[in-house]
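S1.2 Input.
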Amino acid sequence: LIARAAEGSLRDALSLLDQAIAHGGGKLDEASTRDMLGAVDRSYLYTILRALAAQDGPGLVAAATQMAERSLSFESALQELASLLHRLALAQVVPQTVADDDPDAAAVRELAGAFAAEDLQLHYQIAAQGRAEIGLAPDEQAGFMMTLLRMLAFAPAAAEGVPAAPTVT
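S1.3 Output.
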């Protein structure tokens, strides 16, 4: 988390590390570091991807609403979502890249199996484009939600060329 937030700068990484230790009361742990950085808990992203795989529009809206209630950064969420989609695509092509001792291994394997390879590629592109455009949206939440709705709208046809009809209520 710190390395990603520092974006390659050792000086920034050391500064963030000091801040994380201070924020955690002398202890460094993932939860307090995520909180300090405004990073998105991956459980939200797993919920979003499960809803997307199930074509569950209301589930997508509910997950985004929960994120907004926690004042999470939607720009960071799109970055993390693109990173996770990349990881799922990699797990499909090279399964051994998912280490057995990785705490997210079960979720990564489950989600990698829930999508066709071409869908992951499309969702990755949409997430990357959404991140690039989020500054143009009325607000971050709207930009994030529109990105999710694009993923839902551009899902593959349900059967025999009939467009999937996701519902958002």
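S1.4 Remarks. Residues 74-93 form the longest helix (20 residues).
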